[in-house]
Write a structure and sequence with these properties.
By secondary structure, the chain is an alpha/beta fold. The chain has helices spanning 7-20, 154-158, 171-175, 187-202, 220-230, 256-272, 282-288, 291-298, 317-323, 341-351, 359-367, 371-377, 386-411, 463-482, 509-512, 515-520; strands spanning 43-45, 50-52, 54-55, 60-67, 90-92, 119-125, 132-138, 151-152, 162-166, 208-218, 240-244, 331-336, 416-421, 452-453, 497-499, 505-506. It is built from 16 helices and 16 strands.
Length: 522
């Protein structure tokens, strides 16, 4: 039976979420506790000190809230991550660290004003049978929301991987780039790099192979993976990459001018809020203002990205992939068949179904001079509703075509596998009132097949969905182990695997998403 508690409250948050989200080290790892001791396996010595975790009945060990960098507070606010202080004795690692500062109101994050938040979590099989592949999960949330502990990695760990989830600075605390601050404009990405250094140094202590690290991210976390592929400072820190709903060919960075305009607008808003004196130095004001006020001035619906043209990211991810000047590792890249349905459904939850007469004006607003061609290719008569039509257009244009382009760029230089998550009935946003179309494989809908989500609006998987989830977690873990999947590489005729609960088969990707049409417009 479906859960129905607090449905109206849950879907107010869901509507907001759906309407906005789719927008070489080689250090030897420290030793574990001596075999035979009562704490064997749950007490681990890391480079910073000894931690004690827990073990569950399924044979998985969990270590939560391990600091990988110093708290970025006081003089370290908007500073690159510094090493965490070592500790003596045994640190209890049984609860996650604070979520990094993020606004209220969305069910894909944890409202927080915490700046002391640079912690990670490790989930690992209890039985030690050689070195296991390591997966570092970089959570999504538009680089504005989220926390690593919201994504329970037990199913991936049960497939034999050591899974690390990371908190990193978000939004105004992680990506503000005012000239007075002198930052890279990508401190959140730098935090992730610090975590990857920690993983290289410590994975072995948890039974992981420090020389076989896969970075994995979805949406904002996926664009972070794009950033690591493009950043020379991430070189040697990972060995494979998994990209979900993050086409590097069209995203993952911004210009310094864009970032500084956002920063100036933030300072202007602070002055309007009387948080800064009219003539006060902007840098001094920013540094003394509390996180809650900073977030209010920065805004809730921004889409921060690292700045291209810096030492951190010399080239945009797209240019890095085009020129081959990126960290070449095997890549598994994928997209959902109906990405934009979530955002459009969110709009309908807030304002009702889109009237048919609104479709053409919306297309003209989105596509300008190309609108006539788009309307001819996607006539409203093809669809059951205007909302479904708009979602299809935006999915193809914004997600599907750029993801295929990204796979093509990657495959010129490095082994690449591509998938499309195409399941029609998913547990994502289960119980939503039926409006003008079905949600299907929308943005984020693959996540409950990979993680035990600590997020609202996701029902438990059915038996059929569990079987698909098992296939997916096994595939992800096998890719982390070997860099391969049980379907052909993308270079084998542009092969894209369709992931559904039905038979395994090749996706009709270019046909389903009118790839040739969209390329003809460019």
């Amino acid at each position: 039976m479906r859960r129905t508690r607090n449905v109206s409250t849950r879907f107010t948050g869901a509507a907001l979420t759906l309407a906005t989200l789719s927008m070489g080290l080689g250090l030897a790892g420290p030793a574990q506790a001596a075999a035979g001791s009562s704490d064997a396996g749950t007490v681990v010595a890391t480079t910073g000190g000894t931690v004690r975790g827990t073990v569950d009945g399924s044979g998985l060990r969990s270590f939560q809230g391990i600091p990988y960098a110093a708290p970025p507070v006081g003089d370290l606010r908007w500073a690159p991550p510094r090493p965490a202080a070592a500790w003596t004795g045994v640190r209890e690692a049984t609860a996650p660290g604070s979520s990094c500062a993020q606004p209220e109101g969305l069910p894909i994050g944890v409202p927080s004003e915490a700046e002391d938040c640079l912690y990670l979590n490790v989930t690992a099989p209890a039985q030690q049978t050689g070195k296991r592949p390591v997966i570092v999960w970089i959570h999504g949330g538009s680089l504005m929301f989220g926390s690593g502990d919201l994504y329970g990695p037990e199913r991936l760990a049960s497939e034999g991987a050591v899974v690390v989830s990371v908190n990193y600075r978000l939004g105004v605390m992680g990506f503000l780039s005012h000239p007075a601050l002198g930052t890279s404009g990508g401190l959140g990405l730098e935090d992730q790099q610090a975590a990857l250094h920690w993983v290289r140094a410590n994975a072995g202590a948890f039974g992981g192979d420090a020389r076989n690290v896969t970075i994995m991210g979805e949406s904002g976390g996926g664009y972070s993976v794009c950033g690591h592929l493009a950043s020379p400072k991430s070189a040697g820190l990972f060995d494979r990459a998994i990209l979900q709903s993050a086409p590097c060919a069209t995203g993952g960075s911004r210009t310094r001018a864009e970032a500084e305009a956002e920063a100036e607008a933030t300072v202007t808003r602070l002055r309007e809020l009387k948080a800064c004196d009219a003539h006060e130095d902007a840098g001094a004001c920013l540094r003394r203002t509390d996180p809650g006020t900073l977030m209010k001035a920065y805004g809730t619906w921004n889409e921060p990205r690292p700045i291209a043209g810096t030492d951190l990211m010399p080239l945009t991810p797209a240019k890095a992939l085009r020129t081959g000047k990126f960290n070449r590792v095997p890549v598994l890249i994928g997209v959902n068949h109906d990405e934009e349905r979530g955002r459009i459904l969110g709009q309908e939850l807030m304002g009702g179904p889109m009237p048919p007469e609104a479709y053409e004006p919306q297309i003209r607003k989105e596509f300008g001079e190309q609108a006539d061609a788009v309307l001819a290719r996607y006539p409203l008569s093809r669809f059951g509703s205007a909302g479904e039509a708009l979602a299809t257009v935006l999915t193809d244009h914004t997600w599907s075509v750029p993801t295929l382009d990204t796979a093509r760029l990657l495959s010129q230089w490095t082994p690449t596998r591509m998938f499309e998550f195409s399941e029609r009935e998913t547990p994502a946003w289960a119980g939503a009132p039926q409006l003008s179309f079905e949600l299907r494989a929308s943005h984020m809908s693959e996540l409950p097949y990979l993680f035990d989500l600590k997020l609202p609006l996701y029902e438990k998987l059915t038996e059929t969905q569990q079987r698909l989830g098992k296939r997916m977690t096994r595939t992800w873990a096998n890719f982390a182990e070997s860099g391969k999947t049980d379907w052909p590489s993308f270079r084998s005729g542009g092969y894209v695997q369709s992931l559904t609960s039905g038979p395994c088969k090749r996706a009709e990707f270019t046909k389903d998403h009118d790839y040739a049409f969209w390329k003809s417009l460019r």
